[in-house]
Amino acid sequence: MKRHAFWEWFDEYAAPRLAIREISFRKIFEYLDTIQDPITIVETGCARQADNWAGDGQSTVLFDQYVKSRIADAIVHTVDLSPEATNACKAMVSDKVFIHTGDSVAVLPRIARQLNTEGRRIDLLYLDSYDLDWQNPTPSSVHHLKELVSIISKLNPDTLVVVDDSAMICRAVADAENKLNLISEPVAGGKSTYVAQYAAQVGAQLRFSHYQIGWTNLVTDTWS
Length: 224
What we know:
- There is one protein chain.
- By secondary structure, the chain is α/β, with parallel strands linked by helices.
- 38% of the residues lie in helices and 19% in strands.
- The chain is built from eight helices and eleven strands.
């Protein structure tokens, strides 16, 4: 699949099914189009149910289709805690996707060491491994910060770091006509709560903030 064929597939097949994730996935792939080969994508939380586009986003399927549009050694590494999920994922993707089963915080450093041995950088780090409870987002958002910490030594300034399930959170009050008035500015919530706080403190560049949120420049120099 060539790059133009990927975009034809994305526009005609994937985008209409992605619902609230469509705009940010489009921005992810537009950004990756600006990066030189070979492309490396690292993902936590793999696709686990075929054709569940609006629910889970089918990220691993999307990434597989994208790397197939690049040169031969473009790859994806994905990790999930659930053997059922990783087994299901294997049936949905090609051999360009390397699937790992285990705790992502422990597995990500192993992936980083393997990429170092191969002389590869990470172009996209996509964090989506811990199911989110919107009424209690702390466990999920803490886990995603741990994931970032576990592999940050492998990131470079151009690495795009994306967190799923990151709708903005704000406080509002209703007036006499039940019109909502904001009393606080919207901030990133959900899975990205603590990663977003870290990104703000280190001066990362916010690339987009929709249902998914993404930054570059989470590190200022290439780490070895």
